[in-house]
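Study the following:
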Amino acid sequence: MKFRYLLINIVFLFFYFNTNAQVCDILIPICTSQDGLNNNAIDPSPITIQSTCQILQGTRTSWYYILIDEPTNFTFQIEPTGNVDYDFAVWVNADCANLGIADRASYDAPPPYNTGLTLTATGTCEGVFGTGNVMFLALVPGDEVIIVVDRFSITPDTFNLTFGDPDAFDCSILVTAACEGEPITLDASATDAIGYEWSYEDPPGSNLYIPFIPAETGPT
């Protein structure tokens, strides 16, 4: 029997979460760079974001979850579409219901506008006078990463989220197995979503996504 493995990419269009939501409820699992997807930080953070150098309320945020499959020096960049101020915090192997103090964070005031983790930065947390970049994380298989992106500016904007070594990510958090020709039921919900887009990566690892047709795209 032939099996086909589909990497499901689900995009929720222009929605916001209930203010009573918890971090565990709003994490977006990803296993590749999020380029060209109109990533948008618009949702109030359900918690106060705490780091070793600053506390942030987080009024316009987006939360991501990554599972590591290979040893890696974990880096990423938040790349705004416009000249817009973004901050971030990162946790490793934290309980999403009780995150505690972030392992990395940057609250710098731009320019530059790109911000993230790099191989050359040496700090682990920075305030408004930082460079926008803090030190990479040395990760091993099984490590879990949570990233919150906060749009500090009130100016509407979208951003790319790119990673230095996305091949180290475990895509099993997104993979659905099915026999060839077998119907697949996809189920997702987001408070006040106005629509959905469903697509699959073919071939896996190519970063090429093909829309499911037909597929339900309405909000209900």
Summary: The first helix runs from residue 23 to 26. Helices lie at 23-26.
